Amino acid sequence: MSAGVSTGAQLLDRIAANGVVGAGGAGFPTHVKLASRADCIILNAAECEPLLHKDKEILWHYPEQVLAGLTRASELVGAKEIVVGIKGKYAEVIDRLGPMVPPKGRIVPLSDTYPAGDEFILVYDVTGKIIPPGKIPPAVSCVVINVETAWNIGADTPVTEKFLTVAGAVRSPVTLRVPIGITVAEAVGLAGGATVANARALIGGVMMGQLASPDEPITKTCGGVIVLDAGHTVIRRYEAPWKTIARIGASACDQCSFCTEFCPRYLLGHPIEPHKTMRSLCFVESREPAVIGSQFCCECNLCTMMACPEDLDPKSVCVHGKRQLAAAGREWEAEAHPYRAELQLNNRRIPTSRLIVKLGLARFKNEGPLLDRRYEPERVILPLKQHAGAPARPVVVDGTQLEKGDVVAQPEDGALGAAIHASIAGTCRVTEDRVIITGS
Ligand code: SF4
Ligand code: SF4
Asked: Which protein residue's CA is at the shortest distance from atom 3 of ligand 2?
């Protein structure tokens, strides 16, 4: 091996040492994902959450770095084919990428629908293959990586920064590139601040996000912050307690099955029918749904936010059922149930524009240009769990002086996880679940 050329094992070690994880979802450690073998690697640039723009902005501003990371990833998994899946409406980005795509690569323009970025839908749209229920893309010889993940592989340095779009009820919707560990309030401030008095924030997006307090840190997996008024329907839905959801669901569900008819996993032929999970609320006094298909819910929220004419929350019922099934150790037996895509799959894709209207987001600017200004916070908060797997173990103590990029936490030996690095220089304080760095 000549100097400057890395073996696959060395490259995987560097990706692990740099703490690269899936930047657009659960934060699966990238060095583990890229240890798979696959014929096809797909760059997931679908970005279907309403009002988010960060993947498109990264691709526009840093196409070489993203494609360099994607090419390295393709070599690691032994892919014969590289695919960039991006919405066809981003014609300028596609034109820019076109001449740079490697010889074994192609760009697949995707529909502007939700959830185009769901891995199962993306793999189906690109290859025509259906990932079996409960499996992951390598089951059909595919690996899917997020745009920012590819950017991080291309950077080949410790992951200390995060791209995210801040949108909704803010003065200037924007995509930021900021140190990991700044707070939600700081991110909203960089977008000009909230335009409503009783602002609430959703981390990750309107459809698949989570309510976040202003002092919550931005982590490696946060793709966006959406600000809405506390009285907004979407916020009220996220705040509804489980007991209310279950009680109203049991009495008001008319079993129209619209939730099932819209469910993207059902339409792929997976054995999930949310209306049956809703029905189960009536059968058990405890209101604990346990219909076996619930475990295949991808939590896209389409059934709740778009389909249900009664404004019920089948998604939360399925998620609750999924947890019940996991706790009971109940699993679906794949061989017993053949699957195939429903003929209606293409007719039932939900245009993002319709979703935006239905969610009451049409009054917000649907844009997020990358802010070309670096932000230097006085303090960052680095949770020890920003990835799938076990929390990382701190390798620093109170008072340790750190430079940007120094390791602050590592996965326990043999545990699934990712390294965490200082995103600013400063002095650290270590708590049970986080490392806090105050700038020097
Ligand atoms: S769409 Fe709503 S009312 Fe219809 S079956 Fe599903 S949960 Fe019940
Ligand atoms: S959230 Fe609803 S529509 Fe989405 S996968 Fe789950 S059951 Fe299906």
From this structure: 263
pLDDT at 56: 97
Which pLDDT score is estimated for 1? Answer: 43
CB of 265 within 6 A of ligand 2: the answer is: yes
**C-alpha 292 – ligand 1 centre gap (Å):** 18
pTM (2 d.p.): 0.94
Backbone angles phi, psi at 258, to 5 degrees: -60, -35
Tell me if 312 CB under 6 Å of ligand 1. yes
Q: What residue's CA is closest to ligand 2, atom 8?
A: 263
- Please, what are the domains in the chain? 8-155 (3.40.50.11540), 160-232+360-375 (3.10.20.600), 239-345 (1.10.1060), 378-440 (2.40.50.100)
Atom of ligand 2 nearest to the CA of 296: 5
**H or E element that contains 351:** strand 350-351
Q: Is 307 in the pocket of ligand 1 (CB under 6 A)?
A: yes
Q: Is the dihedral of CA 22, 23, 24, 25 positive or negative?
A: positive
- Provide DSSP, 152-200: HHHHTS---EEEEEEEESBSS-EEEEEETT-BHHHHHHHTT-BSSTTEE
Q: Identify the nearest ligand to the CA of 256 by its number.
A: 1
Structure tokens, 349: 């894709």
| Token duo for residue 247 | 């009680």
CB of 274 shorter than 6 A to ligand 2: yes
Say what the pLDDT of residue 434 is: 97
Model confidence at 272: pLDDT above 80? yes
More confident residue, 329 or 337: 329
Q: Is the dihedral of CA 204, 361, 207, 61 positive or negative?
A: negative
Whole-number Å distance, alpha carbon 111 to ligand 1 midpoint, is 26
Q: Of all protein residues, whose CA lies closest to atom 8 belonging to ligand 1?
A: 253
Residue 118 clears pLDDT 80, i.e. is over it: yes
- Ligand number nearest CA of 255 is 1
Identify the residue with better confidence: 24 or 433.
433
Label residue 131 exposed, middle or buried (CB < 10 Å: 0-12, 13-18, 19+). buried
**With a 6 A CB cut-off, is 165 part of the ligand 2 pocket?**
no
pLDDT tops 90 at residue 323 = no
pLDDT tens-digit series, residues 145-196 = 999 999 999 999 999 999 999 999 999 999 999 999 999 999 999 999 999 9
